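Document type: protein sequence-to-structure record

Subject area: structural biology

Format: plain text, a pair of labelled lines:
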Amino acid sequence: MKLAVVILALAMTGCATVTDIEHTPATMSVMSGKSPKDYAACFVGRISDSRKPPQIEPHKEGLRIIVPQKLLTSDPAAIVDIETRSSGSSIKLFERLSNNPLRPKDVQHAVTACISGE
């Protein structure tokens, strides 16, 4: 039953663009002592087991990581904006299905795991 609900939710949402996703409220906003480059390397390493390789591009005072959807297409599922701060980085996560409680949590877990030490 849960699988049917997930499939129905995905079918109803259609495709999202980077612009659509970045205009949604941030799912998570955190700071890290790591530089944007180090944080991005950690995040990409953590997400590589569950998704296709993300696209990394320069953005403002740091980097933007565009994470592809998990199963069906290479359309974006999430955006991680990493900006330089005086003592590390500011990280904001924007997700395509941010109001869907059944969305995959691998991106959130990777964002959280890379905040400190690892």
